[in-house]
Amino acid sequence: MSIFAKFEDIQKTLAGLSQTGQNPLDVRFDEIRSPVEGFVGGRRVLLFGTSNYLGLTFDADCIEAGVQMLRRSGTGTTGSRIANGTYAGHASLEQQLAQFYGKRSAMVFSTGYQANLGLISALAGRDDHLFIDADSHASIYDACRLSSAEIIRFRHNDADDLARRIGRLKDRPGCRIIVTEGIYSMLGDTAPLREIAAVKRETGSYLIVDEAHSMGVLGARGRGLCEAADVEADVDFVVGTFSKSLGAVGGFAVSDLEGFDILRVAARPYMFTASLPPSIVATVSAALTRIQRDGSLGARVRTNGQRLYDGLKKAGFALGPQPNPVVAVKMPDRDTAVTFWKQLLDEGIYLNLALPPATPASMALLRSSVNALHTDEQIDCAIAAISRVGMRLGVINAAPAKQRAERAEKLALPAE
Ligand code: PMP
After folding, report:
1. Structural domains in the chain?
2. Residues whose beta carbon lies within 6 Å of some atom of ligand 1
3. For residue 294, how many other CB atoms are within 10 A of its CB?
4. Closest Cα partner for 114 from 263, 279, 218?
5. pTM, entire model
6. Are 209 and 182 in contact (CB under 8 A)?
7. Which of 94, 162, 176, 215 is most exposed, with minimal Cβ within 10 Å?
8. How far apart are CA 15 and CA 173, in angstroms?
C-alpha cells in the first residue's frame, strides 16, 4: 500500500475543487504588481484576499531599508539566535516592538505560527490548563499539541462558557492560561475582550491575545483589539505576525511580565530554527516606524472594510457579524462556494475560498480582505462583481439591485 494512501480523502476533495479548472488551493500568480493588483493566467485581477491590511508590501521606505540591509548584512543568518547569535537588527526590532506596545519585553520569532507554537507550548507546562477559543487558528491548536498542559476549549467568543470551564477546575493546582484572538480571520468578528479580561481577573488566570489580524488595524495607535477595547493592562502576552499589516514575514510576542526572557531558552520553536534574515528585520522595522508615525493607514483600512461590508450587506449577502477589514460572505454550500470563487476570478476579483475544517461551524466562505490602498472605485468594482456572480448563482436575488435601480431612476441617476 502506498504511503500516501492515507491522503485518499484529501485527494478526492482536491479533485472536486479542481473541477472548475482552477484549484483554489494552488493559484499561480504570474506577477503581483502592487498591494491591490496581480496577474493570474495572463489576466489582471484585483487583490481582495491578501491580508496585506496596510498595503505596505510595496512601500518605498520598507523596500529601501530591506535592500540596504541585504547589501550590508547578506541574505540570511543561517542559524538560530542561540547558535549563531543575535544581530543588532533583531535586538533593536525587539526594543521597537516593546516600545510600540508600551511593554517591558518583546521576542521575535521566524513566523507568527512559530510565535504561537513557542510561546504557548513553553508557558503551558504539565500541570497547567490551557483554555482556548473553539475557533482558534491552527497555530494555537498546534501549540496545544506541543504543550503538555491540559487543553480545554470554550465556546467561540463566549466569556460565560470560559468562566464556567475555569470554575470547574476548582482548587486543582496549575496556571490557568486563556488564549484568544483579536479579529478572527475567518468571519472577521472580534473577541469580547472586556468580558474575557474580567474572567481573567476574577479567576487569576493569564491571558494571551493573538493580534495577527488586528495589529495596525484596530486601536488609535494600531496596537490592536487590546488597545481598542482598553484592556491592555489585563493582557499578559500579545502575539502577532509580521506577515500581514507589516507586509513581510515573521512573528513576535510582547509582555510586561518579569522573567519573560527565559522563553529564549525554553521555547523550542524559537530555539531550533533559523532567525529572520536582517533584510526582513529591516523592512519590518521600517513598516512599524510608519505605523508609529502615521495612523492614517489604519483609519483607511477600517473605512474600506466598512465600505465593502455595507455594500455586500445591501446587496443581500449573509456576512460575518461585524464590519472589519476581513469580510466573509457565507455560501449556501461547498459546491456553490467553489463555483462562485472561480467565476469571481474570471471576473478579475481574487479572494480566498475558505472551507471546512478551516472554517467555524463547517461553513463554506468567500473570505475577502481589504487594505488601506484599495480605492473606493476598486471596492465598488468588487461589490458589483460579487453581486453579479451572486445573482447568477442564485445566492442573492435580484431584488436589492432592482430596488437600487428604481431608486436611482427616481432620482434620475445612472443605475450603476
Ligand atoms: N495567528 C493567526 C490568528 C493567523 O491568522 C495566522 C496566519 N494566518 C498566524 C497566527 C500565523 O502567522 P504567520 O503567517 O506569521 O505564520
Report:
1. 5-53+295-410 (3.90.1150.10), 58-293 (3.40.640.10)
2. 111-113, 116, 137, 139, 181, 185, 210, 212-213, 241, 243, 251
3. 12
4. 263
5. 0.94
6. yes
7. 94
8. 49
